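RESIDUES AND SHAPES:
===
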Amino acid sequence: MFDLKKDAEKIFSNTNFVSDDDQFIKSIKFAEILFDWHSKKNLISTKNPAHFLKRDFYDSIMLSRHLKGGVNVDIGTGAGIPGIILSILNPHDHFILIDRREYPIRFLKHIKLVLDLTNVEIIKSDAKDIPQDIRPRTVIFKNFSNKKISGLSFEKKMIYINKLIKSRIPSNFTILVLTGSVALDIPKSVYFRDSDSVNCKVHELPSPFFDVSKYLLEMN
């Protein structure tokens, strides 16, 4: 039988992430509310809480180690994965969660209120309409769907994303893309304009729960 608390304890233990009681309690509460809302209308790709903890929650903790601190933007956050999880793990940093869909936005507002996440800001917007006054240190992508890039190679998708976000946010920041092994195909330097290039680094996020690793693409 699945035990949410016991499985969450295993997740934290396997990441060597030191959490206080408040972080742990909020993490459990987030998962409980998430699957309650998910049972009514799909918010995530799995109906299995154990799989969610071992994949999505674990990956979010591993991603957390690569944040620059300060202001972080999660674009296409959906149910707040990883944005809400990261905000719980990093209470002293600020997280701006952006999504264009109504149901996820309503869920995020509910979560923010119930968990008293004062470090979370929620914006209903398309990626191309992000407010230009945002000054993040890190921009995070996990899920990004766009008809314009659906048929492109992964490298060209990353070039598109880089150009799109840097056209909206005129500050220096790091882009983190949580993805699969396709990240290994990205060269160390990607040219996205005539003379400018982006430095790329790939971090493997090995998991004790799955044979296949996730990867984090870092673009500066």
